[in-house]
Records
---
Amino acid sequence: MRSSILASATAERAGSAWRQLNRAGQATAELLATLRGDRAALAGALFLLLALAATLFAPPILADEARRIDLAMRNAQPFDPNLPWRYLLGADSLGRSILFRLLVATRNTLLIAGTATLGAAIAGTLLGIVAGYRDGAISTFLLRLADAIMSFPSMLLAVLVLFVFEPGILNVVAVLAVSRLPIFLRTVRAEVLEIRQRLFVVSAQAMGAGRTRIVLKHILPMVMPTVVTLTALEMAFVMLLESGLSFLGIGIQPPEITWGLMVAGGRNYIGSAWWVAFWPGLAIFLVAAALNLVANWLRTALDPAERWRLGSSLEVS
């Protein structure tokens, strides 16, 4: 008798898990269908996939070639049919292939921006939920901390911190994450203040549900669409910040390569070899534009009140 009850309970749990997996698959399929219907967002997503492919495969294959110096090819012009294909986008002042350096630098640029943004999103979301769900001294302290950080422009704060501490990947990621944390904290707090007044949260409290269960089951799923959209937008901004720091010489240091460093290396040759700074600058612009296009699509696709604009009946569980 007991074994049959256990078997029945196990089968019921397996069936429930399968149904949830099936609903998640259907939601993902419909989400991708809405993406195909938005040509601008689709183009942005495809470009980001290409950048991700370069992040994964270019450094192991092309790292040595990207650092190879050939002074005979110094400031070689792009699209010259007489040159090897590795100089398709030209060469820099040391004769290094801009194409290979551009591909290899994708990893550092996107990895730093992505790590800093993800760290800010996780910490800011957790602190924002605490500040929004709990009143009193804790909420006040978190808000004052966010105000103190936001009182400094992000670039100025990063410059001050990196001027005191040694420039490096970890320090750059940390200062960029801290500089964007208040954006997530204040945005999530505002959402939580509104969500906790809704009927389903009040009903859960009346039925005796604990704070942890209410946050994990009712509040967190409601704020995640906003966090996902904000993360995509902030990653574009953080990438521009990192490029600016590298351009100023206080971000990532050689022999590491980032797009910002490549722009900085070509600033003295704008008049004679414009392509040295142009191609990495164009890459920064295209990735930032692609992230903004995808973020705009996510904002509409994940918001039930706006989803009709995509012509979809998508249900996000």
Note: The first helix runs from residue 2 to 37.
---
Amino acid sequence: MDAQSRSLADSRFARFKDAVDRRVGERGIAGIVDMQADLQTLLQSGAIAARLRQELSDLLGDGEQALLWENWNRGGLWSRHGVFLMSGEGWSLHLSRYFSSSSGIFTLSQYACIGVAAGAIELSTYATGESFRNAYFEREQSVQLNRRIELANGEAAALGVDDAAFKVDVRQPTIVVLLLSQSAVDLQWRFDPETLRADSCISARLSDSELVCIGQTLATIDAEQAPQALLELSRHPRHFVRWSAIQLLGKVDPQAALERLRDAVDDEHDDIRRAATRSLAALALTA
């Protein structure tokens, strides 16, 4: 039995999934922010502790060294977010451990509800300026504090449309439950907690990062097979994936990369157009 099936064997989880599926069906993934009360009910029901107790029982019943880290991958239980509990169309529910720390300030790349199963957190949310464009990283952008929310055991909060960025402060080891939609934007930005100014960004979608990583690996181990795959990747919908593929092409097939650079001068994304123009100018100077 996989992780989702084990969760749904409990009627409390099954009711929660039905409620989320219904709300997402009505409003799309933005409906996640309406699930605060339902998440709070789930937190207070005892279902999560029962789910983990059953998981431990199942693992110990395997007759293996069940508490080794590797075995937490069993049935898809462990994910990059923490303990996977269940999912539906466009959303997922996870259990995660937060240790005593203060995070950076990150833009919200998903619709989310966050609840506390044990411990306490302070959640600070921030607003971005009217000129903020997620897909165009600009270091002059900054955020301003919107609200602070303190959450204790059994409490939940939704991150709404005005909460463009967030920071988590944890003063003791805390177990949180995360109800997350699929990624809703291309990039996740990080802002400096002291200056509140932008300092970096990464892809908001794990799949995009994986595509770039696979392209880099292929270009490194097999330069003959890489060009065609990288040409396809250079037409990807996300601009930073396209640009990475063009750069990799320059290492394995300079002529193909030159042709793509010429095309990229007319790319739909400002950053790609500027980068392609600069690259062609630099190549002309070295010719």
Note: The mean pLDDT is 88.
---
Amino acid sequence: MRTRPGARPGRFVLGLVVVAVPLALALLGPLFAGEPGPRAPSFTLGGGHRLGTDFVGRDVWQRILLGGRSVVLVALAATALAHLVALPLGLVSALTHRPWLEELLMRPLDVLLAVPSLLLILLVASAFPPGAVGLSLLVALVNIPDAGRIVRAAAAEAASRPAVEALRMQGETWWRMAVGYVGRSIARTLAADAGVRLTGVLYLVATAAFLGVGVAPDASDWAVMVDRNRTGLFVQPWAVVVPALLIVALTMGSNLLFDAVLEKPHRKRGNGRERGR
């Protein structure tokens, strides 16, 4: 990911630093976690444990190294899946001249949009307990309606421009119009939505983990750690504070990166005056 010319490098560097810590721990942590040692008393500090022990006496630092991969991979996979489905749905709905096809594609999304996301996840999970893959699919499913409507709205504005009509009159293919012109026109909107949506997806994944959906009650998972260790917050705070800060850093860093990449270049006032002469 590179900064655009004119974007503020400070914001990009800050976002990169903030997001690099949780990503590095999530992706590389399991390689350095090692084998679990003997359990100690619950919620203790010191005793050879860098961040103390958790509610069952396990080493918190080892749990941190092991617990990020599930949160990060599920969130990234769900966000990517939601956009992979929403993008073609939105483009087809915006560019088609058949009202019945647009209704067929968009009305089911409105039905899904009417059901609260977390409620739908809990209802499905109560009948079919999901694993990590199932949780990714569920979270992606509840995010498709929002993403699809955003893609359609942005694509409809781009499709109404004279350039698209000119391409159509020249006999250009639908792929060239949809991807070559409309897709490029809405790229900034899609990137901004991806940054915001990743935050919402992380919230859903963490909340589902709090409720025991998709993960075991004693799993090595940052969200599960926050939930299971909250009873000892005032005795051994690191078991709650560190995983919570890592989740917050991941969301904040992602949004800072997207903001920096999408920031419009600043034009110098002198250049604007010279052009106006």
Note: Residues 24 and 158 are 38 Å apart (CA to CA).
---
Amino acid sequence: MFTEAQLYSPVTRGGDGAVRVRLSAEHPGAQDQEYRARRDAIAALALAHTRGEPAPRVAYTEREHTVWRTVSAELARKHRTYACAEIRLAAREFGLPTDHVPQLDQVSAALAPLSGFRYAPAAGLVPLREFFGAFADRVFHATQYLRHHSAPLYTPEPDAVHEIVGHGTQLASARLAALYVAVGAAARRLHTDAALKFLADVFWFSLEFGVLRERGEVRCYGAGLLSSYGEIEEFRAALLRPLDVAAMGTAVYDITHYQPVLYCARSFTEVEEVLGAFFTGMDDDTPARCARDGRLPL
């Protein structure tokens, strides 16, 4: 299991068929039995979903809509200051509602004319090979639960805010969506776990935590930054290294803390060209070549 799996609370099904989401003791909702039951019910909807059918509708509560409103308003302000131009343009075209949690099928409908991506429900962790591979079909597996209402600007795990505001806004950009498709194609042709992990690590430092320079400022395009109220304020304090997929694929990092090292592109065009070439050309021998040569051939 790759390190990214630690972000998701495990989902299990008992012998009686009951679905349980195992929250850690440190989770803000760990002692809230109502929240825990809610998480179980939303996970059960995803597990009961049949591929190809409309995504299950979640009857979100007023408390959940309030969380969405709070986070949407705060992140929108952050994006005006810290997000790159391509992301700000994509957000305007995406037109996410700010007063209620959108259903996954509504997200898919908004993305259809922009990039053709659609959302499919996930109870929690989706194995990386399946998660990434689905990008080739322009499918993004997303959770539907909301973070605990006691800490609306914090979540220890990816929730609907991360999946929709973070990744959804990226996917509203045809240019970034093309990189997702290339990731999906790469995942499907890779056979070794080492190569898949290398791909996942490059994805982590680019489409999750990517930054670039724009008009003299460092701005973000990564979904993990776009959806994090705290980290989007801190990324400019990170050690910024040049965009280098060999280094990104071999870096050691801790997913539970703000990232102290980020890989900064000189422009959005460099993001497209460097990452596009890497995802398109990656194969099972890529990690070994990097270990031998210390870099990828241009």
Note: Confidence is low (pLDDT under 50) at residues 1-5.
